[in-house]
Design brief:
- The structure is a single chain.
- With 72 residues, this protein is an alpha+beta fold.
- The protein has one domain.
- It contains one helix and four strands.
- It has a two-stranded antiparallel sheet.
């Protein structure tokens, strides 16, 4: 865990997770035939609980809806 006073000495998993979410978004938009529907949902992200610390871990949960259904 790093503190915000020394961000250059810590790895920031929140930034990495944010890049992953954006990459997933672009994957759905560029890898699927535009005449077909494609949905990928990142429904939850979480990282740490302290206000003044960079967390050690970040996580995301999501799903790819089945055709004709909403939700996981």
């Amino acid at each position: 865990m790093g503190v915000h006073a020394y961000p250059h000495q810590a790895r920031n998993p929140v930034l990495v997770l944010a890049h992953a979410v954006v990459a997933l978004h672009s994957l759905a938009g560029t890898s699927v035939d535009p005449t077909h529907a494609a949905t990928l949902v990142v429904a939850q992200t979480a990282a740490g609980t302290a206000d003044n610390a960079i967390p050690t871990l970040a996580s995301a949960r999501g799903y790819r809806p089945r055709s004709g259904r909403e939700g996981p």
